[in-house]
Amino acid sequence: MSENTTDQFFKSTVLGHPAGLFVLFFTEMWERFSFYGMRSLLILFLTASFTDGGWEWTRENASALFGSYVGLVYLSTMLGGYFADKVIGFRWAVVVGATLMTLGHASMAVETEFSIYLGLVLLVFGNGFFKPNMTSIVSEMYKDRPEKKDGAYTLFYMGVNAGAFFGILLCGYLGEKVGWTYGFGLAGIFMFFGMLQFWLSQDIFGDIGLKPNKESKAKAEALDTDKRNPFSSIQLAAIAFSSILALLWLVNDPASKISGGKVNIFSFLGPNGNAIAIVSALVVFIILLIYRFTQYSKITKEKLIAVTFFAFLTIFFWAIFEQSPNSLTIFASDYTDRVLTGNWSVVFLVMNSLITILPLVIITWVLILLFKQTFKLYALANIILSVSFIIIWAIAIWMLTKDYYTAGYLSLSDSTLQALKIDKVTTALTEVPATWFSTLNSLFIISLAPLFSKWWESKYNPSANLKYGIGMGLLALGMACVAFGASGIEAGAKTASVSMIWLILVYLFHTMAELCISPVGLSYVSKLVPARMIAFMFGVWYLAVAIGMKGAGMFGENIDKIANEHGLSYFFWMLTIISIVVALFSVAMTPVIKKLMHGVR
User: Fold this and answer.
1) Mind listing the pLDDT tens digit for each residue in 382-403?
2) What is 308-338+434-600's CATH superfamily?
3) Which CATH number does 9-225+379-400 carry?
4) Which of 14, 99, 288, 389, by CA, is between 20 and 30 Å from 600?
């Protein structure tokens, strides 16, 4: 058997899949742990008072910075994907990305003004190199086993959600309850572990992801027989113009607000310089996109228009869905009654123990299965991975011990408290961290994803437009829950004590919305776009996601202004109405888009 065939990967399997998939599983898990762990803390840290170790920023400035950060994260994937494909290969891209993110988290843990900004820049570029290339390795590993690919991605995304869950749970807990440095620092430690175990296990991937050479480039070109439609010099100049202008705007928007106008790249355009810059960038890009569409056959052009339609809807989805680490986290922190007493305290402690320990047990079991297959060849990588899990188990048990003690259900001696670095308490208290609610998204995804997968595979599988309509409708339902819950909060109020049930319902409905839209959208890009255009249209798709992420920040910037004038409930009702309008628009366009898709479901 040829050494380069993908059959070699199936000689050593775990749960019926190549052991290499689980190396990627754990690498991705620690990367998502670090990304979501830091993200859950960023807004809280920026808006916390000086006495609580924060920067005491306004919510407007914090949301502006947050929106630009997550927007740049998605835009940077195009840069990382290009370098991986053309210059350094998938493996080096993953290592470079992981290294940059490790340094970024370490920088943020220092908590100076310079180090926080430096950390965010490193994280943006790190994500750009890392994010697109992990899935590329999975795809290459299964290129000759398409029937196994769905199962592989299901397992891979279980790692994604496991990392997100534990990152938010543990980094969020340490950041809120112990200190911001510990939360930011823990994210970096596990990114470092993920990078080491990937690097030390890389031979398990055979020739996949190596640095491109003349032979591999010639082979790729020979396999690609599609007719080319190269970009002209003018088109490349238009792309450069709109890209540079958009990047400058993403940086300048928060900088001009945070500095009070002292830093403003577009001041020469007048008081509305920021708006003029981004509108100019979008107009140039849209004109280019329309022109490119005219260069293709009627069927290809119509399919591309359909993809662009879904990308447009995706902007609104992410702008509202990504209120989770933004306005919804603020709502959890300042407007939600998170103190539990009596039976409710016991219920939360038991439930939190179960959702912490059971996933750890399952993932540890998978880790042991991987050890059995790979320890002889990759002993050091497995040792590093086991050390990371020992640390996770220790932190999880410490967290639960602290919670039971502070709630009054566990007695600890002074010496034990000192050894465990737990502050002595005289009054029993169970307070749910504000970041805890964000963990519900990952839990609901793991629980509900199989049900939605079965639905999509059944005869009741809805059309693309209807899926988007259902998703946006569920998004509206979630926002309506929190809007209703906030209805008793008076205009201008800075704190309140709303029931936690409204936030739990928000995350339930929003997770269902995500399952309708997020994976489905990417699937339609791959189904509708010709192979020769796939890279460009994925770029358009991630541009839409980036715009949505920045839109989430822009919505969040206005929460105080709207809440002071009309009440907090009004803000969430606005997002509800926008979601309903987009849902109805998607359903109404069904006949038009169905025709443009030419039978693709």
Assistant:
1) 999 999 999 999 999 999 999 9
2) MFS general substrate transporter like domains (1.20.1250.20)
3) 1.20.1250.20
4) 288
